[in-house]
Specification:
single chain; about 525 residues; mainly alpha; Rossmann fold; 3-stranded antiparallel sheet; two-stranded parallel sheet; RNA-binding
Length: about 525
RNA sequence: GGCCCCUUAGUCUAGUGGUUAGGACGCAUGGUUCUCAGCCAUGAAUCAGGGGUUCGACUCCCCUAGGGGCUACCA
């Protein structure tokens, strides 16, 4: 007898009441990874039973965030599926039908208690330091009375009839066994007086009817799970497997929320982090593979992910580590891909001329790029054909090497290659150009470079060093002012490459300009 | 208040009775270099506290403390 193989079905069920934060994204990711690893189905369901707080913008934002992260779903509000609708507000009849069944079977009942009465009850229980729970006031109302009050249109809710004694038990893939006495639970509400289901009820009805096999969610739901287990039993639905993930905490160790700054997925998207890097880092928040590997490509993550290795401890989101992971992923991108990304961003921000077009759908010849090929004399580095412009951009990206860690910083780091107006570090200018007699030297260096017949790296370096020798100074003493004049700051890639890629005309112009400004 | 969960360096973690408690980020120092990044090397830093159990506890049990969650007609 082989056990029947049940299809693995998981879901991410956000409520559209805010942006997608890293905690939600992590939950979505683990579900997605599990589905992709097992060949299962990943469902997106929108839990909008809180009519007040749910918004369309929030829904759009969540979808945008998940798409950016590359967490694609197989069934959901936009693409449908066999078990729709995938928005709770459209599933009303399902909840009412299941709730009605429970009432008919005596497993749930109508309650007419007013908010006022409940308030007073709570107050009283707090005073007497009692457990705060519903007292079962309407639990055994006469059926005729119920019918009469219902007919009279009296506001009411439907409550679950919690068994008096006994206990509930369930297994959690990451927590192990969980048991709690029924006394701790009370007759919680299933259907609110506005007719909408409560979270605890809707989640069970939906997970069951959508055939969810594994409920993977944040561990803030752990305490609610026993109630849900009761509901599964009462409704006669098979119990799914549960996996409660540790929370992700903000810097102050409290639950993540808006006030925790950069914890929105939007932030990372807008700042041009790499989605694969974010996925990698998020995966590490509460999961580890072993004691050595922590850098994973997406396929590697799918292959290695396992619910069994999910940690029980809450984790704090560490931005430094996120940036590090991002840098590592960026480092691993090939030159073409990097250049493509930089190109895109530079264009967006107006750093590139309008005629700078590269058709990335066609192979780009990078043979000349690797960085050792001299640029032939007479070939201007500015302007030129699109492929020449691209070639130059690729070389710039190439010489940037690992200095470019975050795509977002590309414009400020290499902007001086494309615009003549770039920020100049005043202090550096004073120190390296005006002070130390740099101004006069720069003008003379400009002359020397201008006379160069072959403007390629070797010749440039030779010229600069020879000039330093002639002056009887260290090459560095010439290079520093040069860097400030050319790039505006004290940080740049190899200065000789900068000179070559800037081109003779721009180099000479900036050197003379700086010299003049310094009064040389 | 009641109940539940969690506890290895600042942070993320490996570890399941015997280890010099391993790795990573961050930090510090040194090396490489025209600066920076990178890379290499080195270093500081951890089992929350207290009781047990045991020949032996980071590992098992109990208590305390701290943190988190649930206790809503929020999800």
């Amino acid at each position: 007898m082989t056990e029947q193989q049940v299809q693995i079905r998981v879901r991410f069920a956000p409520s559209p009441t805010g942006h997608l934060h890293v905690g939600g994204a992590r939950t979505a990711l683990y579900n997605w990874l599990y589905a992709r690893k097992t060949g299962g189905v990943f469902v997106l369901r929108i839990e909008d039973t809180d009519a007040q707080r749910s918004t369309a913008e929030s829904y759009e934002g969540i979808v945008r965030g998940m798409r950016w992260l590359g967490l694609d779903w197989d069934e959901g509000p936009d693409c449908g599926g066999e078990y729709g609708p995938y928005v709770q507000s459209a599933r009303g009849v399902l909840y009412h039908s299941d709730a009605g069944r429970l009432v008919d079977e005596g497993k749930a009942y109508y309650c007419f208690c007013t908010a006022h009465r409940l308030e007073a009850l709570k107050f009283e229980q707090r005073e007497s330091r009692d457990q705060i729970r519903y007292d079962g006031h309407c639990r055994d109302l006469d059926t005729d009375e119920v019918a009469r009050r219902l007919a009279a249109g009296e506001p009411h809710v439907i409550r679950f009839r919690m068994p008096e004694g006994g206990e509930v038990r369930f297994d959690d893939v990451v927590r192990g066994e969980f048991t709690i006495a029924n006394e701790e639970l009370d007759d919680f509400v299933l259907i609110k007086s506005d007719g909408l289901p409560t979270y605890n009820f809707a989640v069970v009805v939906d997970d069951a009817r959508m055939r969810i096999s594994h409920v993977i969610r944040g561990d803030d739901h752990l305490s609610n799970t026993p109630r849900q287990v009761h509901l599964y039993a009462a409704l006669g639905y098979p119990l799914p497997k549960f996996a409660h993930l540790p929370m992700i905490l903000g810097g102050d160790r409290t639950r993540l929320s808006k006030r925790h700054g950069a914890v929105s997925v939007d932030f990372y998207r807008e700042n041009h982090y790499l989605p694969d890097a974010m996925v990698n880092y998020l995966a590490l928040l509460g999961w580890s593979f072993d004691d050595r590997q922590e850098l994973f490509s997406r396929p590697a993550l799918i292959e290695k992910f396992s619910l069994k290795r999910v940690s029980k401890n809450p984790a704090m989101f560490d931005n430094d580590k996120m940036e590090y992971i991002n840098a590592e992923h960026f480092k691993r991108l090939d030159l073409l891909r990097k250049t493509q990304l930089v190109h895109e961003l530079l264009r967006e921000q107006g750093y590139l001329p309008g005629d700078f077009e590269v058709d990335f759908t066609r192979p780009v010849d990078l043979k000349l790029v690797p960085g050792t090929q001299p640029v032939a004399a007479g070939e201007s580095q500015e302007g030129g054909t699109p492929s020449k412009q691209f070639h130059r951009l690729a070389m710039i990206v190439q010489i940037m090497g690992n200095r470019l860690k975050l795509l977002r910083d590309a414009p400020s780091q290499i902007g001086y290659f494309f615009k003549d107006e770039f920020p100049v570090d005043r202090d550096a200018f004073e120190r390296h150009v005006r002070g130390a007699g740099g101004a006069r030297r720069l003008a003379r260096l400009a002359d020397a470079l201008e006379g160069l017949r072959y403007f390629e790296r070797g010749a440039v370096e030779e010229t600069v060093r020879a000039f330093a020798d002639e002056l009887g100074i260290e090459a560095g003493e010439l290079i520093h002012p040069c860097r400030v004049a050319l790039t505006g700051g004290t940080v740049s890639p190899d200065i000789f490459w900068v000179i070559v890629l800037l081109g003779k005309a721009k180099t000479v112009e900036r050197l003379r300009g700086a010299s003049a400004r310094a009064g040389g």
